[in-house]
Amino acid sequence: MTSPVPLDPSVAPPGTREFRDAGGIPADRWHADQNGETLVPTHCCFCGVQCGMYLRVDRGGKVFGVEPRNHDINRMRLCPKGINAYQQVNHPDRLTAPLMRHNRDQPFREVGWDEALDFTVAEIRRIQTEYGMDAFGLLGGASLYTEKTYLVGKFARVALKTRHVDYNGRLCMVSAAGANKLAFGIDRAGNPFSDMLLTDCLLIAGSNVGECFPVMTQYVWGARDRGATLIIVDPRETAVARTADIHVALKPGTDSAFFNSVLHVVVAEGLTDEAYLAAHATGWDEVKRTVAGYPPARAAEICGVPEEQIVRVARVFAGAGKAMAWHARGVEHHSQGVENCLSIINLCVATGHIGRPGAGYGTLTGQGNGQGGREHGQKSDLLPGGRSMTNPEHRRQICEIWGIDESELPPAGTSMMEMVWQMQRHEIRGLIGICNNPFVSLPHYATVKDGYDTLEFHAQFDFFLSETAANAHVVFPVTVWAEDDGVMANAEARVVKHNKAQEPPAGVRTDTWVMCELARRLGAGDKFDFPDSRSVFEELRVASAGTVNDYSGITYERLEETGGIVWPCPSVDHPGTPRLFEDGRSYHPDGKIHMQVVEWHPPMDPYSEEFPFSLTTGRTVAHYLSGNQTRRLGALVEQTPRPWVEVHPAHGFRNGDPVRVVTRRGSEVFPALVTDAIRPDTVFIPYHWPVPTAANALTIDALDPRSKIPEYKVCAARIEAAEKVDDVPAPPTGPGRLAYPEAQVSRVDPLPPTSPQGRGTSERS
């Protein structure tokens, strides 16, 4: 009799381990059957799932294709973005020489590296001499390898000597990070993806899994196949919501009222796990008193959902033997984002669904390194290892590792959006941006453009000329992910190794090289003697040792052998920590989970007769973040050439009708995508495009007071008929180049794309 195949995908079926390549053998030992072709095992550059893939490399050393890989994470699956990602590497839009101009009225010209670096250093010194060290800022990105995010934080504080450093993960997961730290004392998901296959109830809030994390759908549907009840909380009936047992289509901006009410029912019906609460939690009495004020009748009125649906969710989740809750940006992108996350944590803790196989809580990261990108120092309030900028002992530890005096380490800085406001006020006069595109990704575009235009000097690192880079004084051409080694941490906090597949084009340098060279010219070269990513990683291991975010036991070799290790991993013989809280202890000094009181409040942009609708934004399956990468790839542009506005049939529009969306920030015209899969009082626009088709020209720059995340997911709006949809601009290109025509032809299609996320969306006439 043969042994049964285990359900946990992190465990290899008996007898098959030798046939699997879970990150396995170093890249140079993989060779394809085709003569002269090599397969390099690596991971996708896009979302926080971090699917394994092979890059196909020809005999000339150039990447020319991709193959899926039987990695534990994705098991041979890739989404449309992953399949097309390799096309970035040798794309004709790649920047291959530094671009420079002395003022924005001049066109860019290609220059040598010495001229661009010297000009940048001269401007840094001029601005800091005239206005102080904090007059220069640095903004990083959560799609960088973790080694580079470590360097961003160190470069800002040691080479630039400025307090002003932050990153675009501020627009992604910081509400979840804040909630996790408050409740658990650690900032990461508590369970691996594979635990979904063991649960009896899976609740997903504010996450369009089918489009934003397509390969993760295998875990969601795997849970369903094994009998789990699926609950989706989302204003839109997304592709995954259509398959759910319960779809809660609440009004945007009401999440914490809903989850407080669910917990109210749990308490009222005696479904709490009092033994777990007594042993492992603090703050429960205060939370219980607060949720008493959220009976289903009140929450139903706030959220626009039936009372009986609130009761049903409470009974199903609390009554399950094992239940899990996951959430993403739909819960976090709010002025009450931290509270929204805490309200879900409170529900999990009160029902005892924490720290067990199939029972727990987690956050789905949007960017490829959304988890690792905030762990080691590029966030304004954190130092490597998740250390606090305001903790004297943490500061002392890092100064010792970096070899600087404690008086030299600047204080904590401000958040990304706050830095833009400081640019407007002339408090920040110079800026370097790395791996970000705020002209598309930040809210209230007019404010962002004004802030950047006010800068006296702006340099940007990128491999394509983004909308933000096109506004800069200097653009440094840097490598894509396939041209360098490095690690990322996916949504499970699993650290995975990306392998270099080809040499970069002549004239292109790694982000690491550019930062180290700038540091050398600024007089801090002795602190930035890093010839490659491995040397940075070795210092990162030392800098994280003994912290909650401990990477010290992770090595490149172990990652190659195992396919990924989940931190904390304090020693080289430690297996990593895929599941937290199994011993009932949190990472607070008292070992308890600190439950937090949550009160719902309305969104920051008030509704009125003039603005009665909720505008919400999000992603679509073909594109990624600001679209600087995906809007250049032919198949993805053909699949989704332009943004649209989803509207309910009750408003009388037909597919393709020009619809003007108006908020207090401005107006734009989109083709209608008419679907009854959205609430009648809500409209949706995907945000991957620049003005004049930018969703973020309309969104509000209100921030969560704790996490400083913008309130992307809800603002007051109105809709009205228009005459013509706004044209989609082509992506910027370097001097003397035209937009890649094969990737841009479908932008002229005036109709919305057929959409997978709702019923009634295939009509195009």
TrEMBL record:
Its EC number is 1.7.99.4. One of its GO terms (molecular function) is molybdopterin cofactor binding. Residues 1-28, 365-389, 723-765 are annotated as: Disordered. Residues 37-93 form the 4Fe-4S Mo/W bis-MGD-type domain. GO terms for biological process: respiratory electron transport chain. It is an enzyme of class 1 (oxidoreductase). SMART domains: Molybdop_Fe4S4. Pfam families: Molybdop_Fe4S4, Molybdopterin, Molydop_binding. PANTHER family: NADH-QUINONE OXIDOREDUCTASE SUBUNIT G, RESPIRATORY NITRATE REDUCTASE. This is Assimilatory nitrate reductase large subunit. It comes from Streptomyces laurentii.
